[in-house]
Every structure is written in C-alpha cells, then in structure tokens.
Amino acid sequence: MKSEILKKSGEIFLKFGFKSTTMDDIANKMAISKKTIYKYFKNKEQLVKESVSFFHNTIHNEVISVCGRGYNAIEENFEIKKMFKDLLQNSSESPMFQLQKYYPETYKNVMKNEFTMFRDCISQNIEKGISEKLYRENLDVNLITKLYFTLVFGIHDANLFPLENKTLNQLEIDALEYHTRAIATKKGIEMLEEQLEKNKSQL
C-alpha cells in the first residue's frame, strides 16, 4: 500500500501542484481514508519527500532501461525526453519550481540526486555519440555535462522562463536541440533534424 500511495501521490503532486494538493485530495483520488495515508506518513512534508524520492528512483530505472535498448546517442536523448512529456504537459507551472518554492530542503536533496544521475547519463551519452561520430571529438565531457544540466534545470526557473507561449515539454525540446547542435558533427545534425521532424509529428 505504501508504494501505491507514493506512486499515486507523486502523480497528483506533479499534475496539480505540491502546494495546492492536500492529504484529503490524495485520499479521495485513491478512494482510501486519510487515516490510511497517515499510517505510513506522519505529515504532508514527509509524503512529498518520499514521493519525490520514489519518482526519482523510478525515472532512474527507466532511463537505464532506455539506454540499454540500442539507440544511437541522439535517438537515446529523444527517447528519454519522451518519458517526461506526459508528466509535464498537464502542469501549469514547473514541478521543480513548486518544489523549490514550497519544500526547499526536499528540493536541495533532489538536485543532488538529479545531478548524479544526470552526470552519469549525459557523460555516457556523449562518449557514445563520439564513438558513433555523431558528436565531435575532443569534447570536454565534464564541462558539457554541467552546461547541459544548468540549461535543463534553468528552464524550470519560472522567473527566467515563464510559461507563456510554450509548454515545458517544448522548452525542453528546445534545450535538447541547442545542446545537440553545439556538439554534433554533420552526421549528427542530420540525425537531429530527423528526430525533430519525428517529434513534430508526435505533438
């Protein structure tokens, strides 16, 4: 039951916001009593903390799964991006911005974990792309990883990127395109254009 609550509450928080969602909302949407939730979580703050951690671990496992399916480096990035599309399209503001604003301690822990996962995933992707001649040789892998991490999470800063004319999903595709064009070979650019066209047809 605890894992079910973590999974469902995470989905609800992402869709309706960390601040506005109450324990009653979660209980009602799960058709369980609020007492059942409090059996496993002493308060909402603990539920937020653990549901975010549960979500992070789930995403990490799915990313590992995608990386093992034999895609080339550029395809791989777009496939990973697809995983987040449904999570972000219903959000009125960035989930990360909400977390930072209302639960700063949990946000700090998330950022530490995210950077570790992000660093390993992107570094491996860059190395793969170089070997496939989709990315240029002699790239500073560590620097590029940090730059892309900063770019992606900067998008979730509502002050820098207020959601006016674009969705979070569209902004993240723009960031991925920007990142890829900066490091791609001619062959890589051709693959990027192919993936961007495919992405348009799926919007």
Structural topology:
Elements: H1 2-16, H2 23-30, H3 34-40, H4 44-67, H5 73-88, H6 95-102, H7 104-131, H8 141-154, H9 168-183, H10 186-202
Largest sheet properties? none
Distance between the termini: 35 Å
Strand content: under 5%
Unreliably modeled segments: none
CATH class: Mainly Alpha
Mean pLDDT: 86
Computed Rg: 18 Å
Integer count of domains: 1
Broad shape: elongated
Structural class: mainly alpha
CATH architectural group: Orthogonal Bundle
Q: What would you note in describing this structure?
A:
The chain has 203 residues and is mainly alpha-helical. It has one domain (44-202): Tetracycline Repressor, domain 2 (Orthogonal Bundle). It is built from ten helices and no strands. Helix 5 packs antiparallel against helix 7. The radius of gyration is 18 Å and the shape is elongated. It starts with a helix and ends with a helix.
Summarize the structure.
This protein is 75% helix and 0% strand. The protein has helices at 2-16, 23-30, 34-40, 44-67, 73-88, 95-102, 104-131, 141-154, 168-183, 186-202. Residues 1-59 form the HTH tetR-type domain.
Tag the structure with descriptive keywords.
203 residues; mainly alpha; 0% strand; DNA-binding; TetR family transcriptional regulator
